[in-house]
# Entry
Amino acid sequence: MRVAAIQMNSGADVSQNLDLAGGLLRDAASDGCTLAVLPENFALMPEQGRDKNRHAEHPGDGPIQDFLAKTAGDLGLWIIAGSMPLVSPEGERVYGACLAIDDDGRTRAIYRKIHLFDVDLPDREESYRESHSMYPGDEPVTVTTPAGRVGVTICYDLRFPELYRTLVDEGASVFTVPAAFTVVTGKAHWHTLLRARAIENLAYVIAPGQFGEHPDNRETFGHSLIVDPWGRIIAEQAAGNGVVAADIDPEEPAKLRESFPALANRRL
# Structure
């Protein structure tokens, strides 16, 4: 089973971002991939966070979702669609939502980002307040795909291992972690956290990222990668738009969990 992490440098023009995403998804399908994961904010990296509100869609209705449905159906490709703005109960803020689209173009699940990135980076004049423009979700989400049961997460969620244990308890054997990690936090923690989530849960991790400079003066880390359930990085790309692809065995997590029963030995 071949899967892909799609690395992008998205900007403020939605149509350009979708054109780029479409080309990379076609490349993934041509490479034999069954499932592809887009990065966080694949459709829009705006100059100001509140600009997302102008592009927020209702579930099942809007040009971004139309693009995803048509592309998935045309290519016969499952798409885990990084994150895009969906309407929230609070008008000025949006959900950061990750849609799971099957190979017929149907939406099978929607995950709304639970953990919002409200931090001041140590020793840096960088401050982020996602909660100013985003509304938090509150439900973990898993979805059954040809690659296995996928636990859907987004970026900052990666720092909260209890979420991943919840997803394992719901049957997840693969985690998707679309991200827009900053360069500072990426250099310090990206590889370590992704490998840890794979190792401690004996699960595959597919982690596509944004890379380079964006209209809001943020610089993202890239290094999109795929990790196997033993914590080995089996595919990675540091920078540039591209498709990071690898073959995975959907049965491998279950085999490892049986022979190395760390999850079964939990006591808390």
Observations:
- The chain has one domain: 2-259.
